[in-house]
Amino acid sequence: MTYEIPKKVQTLGEDIQRSELKYHDREVLVSKEFTFDSAHHLHCYEGKCKSLHGHTYKLQVVMRGKVDDRGISIDFVDIKQIAKERIIDRLDHRYLNEVLPPMNTTAENMVVWMYEQLREALRSEGLFPAVRLEEVRLWETPTSYAAVTARLMGDDPA
Ligand SMILES: Nc1nc2c(c(=O)[nH]1)N=C([C@H](O)[C@H](O)COP(=O)(O)OP(=O)(O)OP(=O)(O)O)CN2
Ligand SMILES: [Zn+2]
């Protein structure tokens, strides 16, 4: 069954297109969250995390960009596609020590690697510099996270 948009609502859409009340060119942060489950263990670490164990990780990706005529700075769908391809699909239900480049799989190391992956994806997809990565946050447990920002990564725009 198809639903026809009422004439009144169509007109409202046209009004919005014509309206002066637009926030385009204003920079806005846009964020999306993901979860994935992985196993890992730490090296050079005395404590329970030296043994093989798992986490439900939570990843938050924050991007920033100028709002366009539609009122969108970066489509949530694009953030999802990039994060899935570059991170989630590679790490979900995997043994991190095996699938990540050689690193101790701490939240700190992983979040920097994730930032680099996402920054590279924005460039290769042609979204940068209109869209920039602002912050990446990785929760290892509900109470522990590591994060990097554009400033910490030396990527602040002049
Ligand atoms: N700075 C860091 N400290 C620790 C890391 C890390 O990546 N960076 N990692 C670990 C372990 O991987 C461990 O699994 C997580 O430790 P912890 O937060 O203590 O885990 P809990 O399940 O005990 O968390 P609660 O939320 O307090 O129950 C260790 N340290
Ligand atoms: Zn752990």
Automatic annotation (TrEMBL):
Q: Enumerate the catalysed reactions.
A: 7,8-dihydroneopterin 3'-triphosphate + H2O = 6-carboxy-5,6,7,8-tetrahydropterin + triphosphate + acetaldehyde + 2 H(+)
Pathway recorded for this protein: Purine metabolism; 7-cyano-7-deazaguanine biosynthesis
Its needed co-factors are: Zn(2+)
Report the coiled-coil segments.
Answer: none
Q: Report which superkingdom the organism of origin falls in.
A: Bacteria
Cross-referenced Pfam families: PTPS
Q: Which Gene Ontology molecular function entries are recorded, alphabetically?
A: 6-carboxytetrahydropterin synthase activity; metal ion binding
Q: Which InterPro entries match?
A: 6-PTP_synth/QueD (IPR007115), 6-PTP_synth/QueD_sf (IPR038418)
> What are its E.C. numbers?
4.1.2.50
Which key words are in the record? Lyase, Metal-binding, Zinc
Q: Which family does it belong to?
A: Belongs to the PTPS family. QueD subfamily.
What is the protein's given name? 6-carboxy-5,6,7,8-tetrahydropterin synthase
Organism field:
Paenibacillus tyrfis
